[in-house]
Specification:
The chain is of the alpha/beta class. The protein contains 15 helices and five strands. The structure holds zinc ion. Zinc ion binds next to helix 3.
Length: 322
């Protein structure tokens, strides 16, 4: 069986299918939830559903994914759907971007269905952009659906907020996401467990971590830092900030696990569940107090790194305490 790739929120899509059938769709929605939880993907899925050629009567809960309209949307080449978001991470949304997308409100729909405009990461709208958006929200067009996505309601101007219907997205339970990764993405049980944990339940994040081979990389780090006496490793790893950052994240998880194992916990709460035997061996050498001290040492070093200090000495000290 081919894996079913579901990166949008199926429940939310279903809800919108129902709203569409009963003619109760509003003009603007604000999707709130953590990053990588599937807010933009869900807005796109709704756009597909509302324009799907196999769903003209609106009877279906899901788009076909194969008609010309669905395919065009998949390739982001459908004239009735537009998405804007900051150009780079953390940047603000440019005023020209906002102007361009909102001009479509006045245009006629090409396919005769609903036009869907998505403003992703609307937390990053500046005042001018917010003001233009507000004007559009005050004079909505019946054939246009506007979606804003943001991580927190507080980041959106209250005048905008009050004109949108709010839909909240929550991450999956870790166990649930783990199950999805096994079932739909052919991931192994161990790697799924690690990915679900590291992504804190957000599917998009878990897939990103999977694509960057995060599971294999974390095991390499454990092997080289915890279980070998490779003296060159600290020197090599501190050459790249990203590498040290990852090493410290892995160590933080490892020592946290060790503290849990030392207190008798050996269940799904362990991040490195694939290395339970190694953890059992590791905690034998250290007392509970030493382990908790080691944990604060790692956290302190993470803080040092974020403040741009050189952490070579601190890492050597951690290694020595192991
Ligand atoms: Zn379709």
């Amino acid at each position: 069986m081919l894996p079913i790739v579901v990166e949008y929120n199926v429940e939310v899509l279903k809800k919108f299918a129902g709203l569409n059938r009963s003619g109760r769709l509003a003009h603007a929605y604000l999707f709130i939830g953590p990053r990588f939880v599937g807010k933009k993907k869900t807005a796109l899925a709704i756009a597909k559903l509302l324009n799907c050629e196999q769903n003209i009567d609106g009877a279906k809960d899901i788009f076909c994914g194969q008609c010309p309209s669905c395919l065009k949307m998949q390739a982001m080449g459908h004239p009735d759907v537009s998405l804007i978001a900051p150009m780079t991470e953390g940047a603000s949304i440019k005023i020209e971007q906002v102007r361009l997308i909102l001009e479509k409100v006045k245009m006629r729909s090409f396919g005769g269905g609903k036009k869907v405009l998505i403003i992703g990461e609307a937390d990053h709208l500046l005042t001018e952009g917010s003001n233009i958006l507000l004007k559009t929200l005050e004079e909505p067009s019946p054939d246009t659906l506007l979606f804003l996505t943001a991580t927190a309601v507080e980041n959106i101007l209250s005048t905008i907020r009050s004109r949108c219907h709010i839909v909240r997205f929550s991450p999956f339970e870790k166990v649930e996401l783990e199950e999805q990764l096994v079932q739909n993405y052919n991931e192994s049980k161990f790697s799924s467990h690690f990915l679900a944990f590291s992504a804190e339940g957000c599917l998009g994040k878990a897939l990103q971590l999977r694509d960057s081979q995060s599971f294999d990389k974390k095991n390499q780090v454990i092997n080289r830092f915890v279980f070998s006496e490779d003296e060159e490793y600290i020197k090599t790893v501190t050459q790249e900030d990203e590498d040290v950052k990852f090493l410290l994240e892995v160590l933080e998880g490892w020592v946290r696990d060790a503290v849990l194992v030392k207190s008798g916990i050996r269940d799904q709460r362990i991040i490195n569940f694939d290395r339970l035997n190694d953890l059992n061996g590791f905690v034998k050498k250290l007392t509970f107090k030493e382990l908790t001290e080691l944990y604060s040492q790692v956290v302190k070093t993470q803080k040092m790194l974020s403040e741009n200090f050189n952490v070579k000495v601190a890492l050597a000290a951690i290694k020595l305490s192991m």
